[in-house]
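<purpose> Linking amino acid order to shape
<body> The protein record starts here
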Amino acid sequence: MIPITTGPRLRPTLDAVPGYTPARMPAGTAPVHRLAANESPYPPLPGVLERLAATSGDANRYPDPGCRELTAELAARLGVPAAHIAVGTGSVGVTQQLLQIAAGPGDEVLYAWRSFEAYPVMTRLVGAVPVQVPLTGDERHDLDAMAAALTERTRLVIVCNPNNPTGTIVGRAELRTFLDRVPSDVLVVLDEAYVEFADDPDYPDGIELYRDRPNVCLLRTFSKAHGLAGMRVGYAVAHEPVAAALRKAAVPFGVSQLAQDAAVASLQSVSAMRDRVAALTAERARVFAGLRAQGWSVADTQANFVWLRLGDRTAAFADACAEARVSVMAFPGDGIRVSVGDALDNDQFLRCAARFGASGTTAEESR
């Protein structure tokens, strides 16, 4: 007799997997200042919408599973072999593929913390053990501590550069030194989702670092600077064994033809993209300076967002933002990440921050 159960048996691993919590959206129908998801405040680049319109008529057809046109365009622009590129559904989709090819039950995945909130989720989904190394006091990767945390079980190391959510970077010399300390059979992923916004002269060239290091893989995306967050397309650059394994682990036809064509058109409008990045980094500097003038302690940022370490004041600040109809990304007990938007969005956020006060009390409460 078949035993009666309460439902299908699922993997026990899921019990330890934290679910993804989207940013809180203010209630009501009034317009919201969307500063939670690190999206571009600008529409797709010139030529992209026209390419999408031309492609949309073929929605009844499967996309090119090899993403050949996009791969060729990327290879030419980056100066790397086409065989070293693997395309996926955003950099987060490629991250999931990296975990599938490199780590399994009992293996360790090493990264700084706090960093991208998807890392522990995806690590536990493959049955691996997340090893989280605390950031330094100035919100940067502690590479010495990360090197000390390497063990025989380490299979994957992730360096988010610039780091999400703090926006801080790992410099050129310190990253080279760290890479030299990692065993050659451990895969190191440089997550460069925000690479286009980094203008610090000390920011390392990931492409040059990967060239003579077969265990180094770069992750990049079209979701941020290229303004294609809704298209879900990103890519990895890695030596052929890793790139080939990533292509094996990809969901068949996962990257739509619309996404592929939009990405190609966006690459062909790279000068316009750079103009938009320049405009956004100018707004970033204005928001950063405005917060500092209000008395806030703000981490030096090289991404398209700012980070406020608020601790137990995080929830109250998020509530204040929601009341001002500003959507921000709150990490309970840690802090708030605020995307840089257009001038109107940023002004509203700065007004909200001023009312709340760097001391943690609202203007009304301080009277």
